[in-house]
Design brief:
112 residues, mainly alpha, 2 domains, 0% strand
Length: 112
Amino acid sequence: MLAARRQFDAVYGSAQAGNARSIFGLQSAAETFRQSSRDIFGGGQGYADALALIGSRLDGIVGMGGDALTQSFVTENARQNTDRIVDALADLCRENAALRRDINMLLMRPAA
C-alpha cells in the first residue's frame, strides 16, 4: 500500500503543477491507491481516510480551473507535436544523406 500511496502522491504533485500526463494518470493512480487501501484496511477507518484523501486531492485538481487545465494540455500537445517534427526532420536528414551517397556513387561510375 505504501508504494501505491507514494505513486499517488507523486502523480498528484505533478498534476497539481499542471503536468498533463499526470492529470491523465491521476485517476489510475488514485484507483490503485484505493484498491490497495481496501486490501489492507477492508472497510475500516484507514480505507475511509484514503477515500477522503483521494477525494480531496481530486477536488483540488478540478479546482485548478479550466484555463490552467487547458494550458497544460496545450503545452503537452505542443511538446508532442515538436517531438514528431524533430523525428520527421531526423528521418528526412537520413534520407537526404542516403540520396547524396547514391548520387555520388552514380557520379563516380565510368561513362558508358
